[in-house]
Please model this.
Amino acid sequence: NVTTVLIVDDNADDATLVRRLLEAKKSYRVFHALDGQAGLAEARHQNGAKGAMLTRTSATDKGSVDFSGG
Model:
């Protein structure tokens, strides 16, 4: 089983670090987008996704939203 992860981060170095950490732990298919708009476009582009988890983290706001699909 391959888990798909979309990293949305404007810092390419941070995204690369997270990608490497994920790929070292398990079989992940990792995509990267530089901003929210590109992230939404990439998420829409991915076929077969049955659900998604959106996590937002910033210096002033931390939280997550779980979108479950059928």
Remarks:
- Strands lie at 3-8, 28-33, 51-57, 62-68.
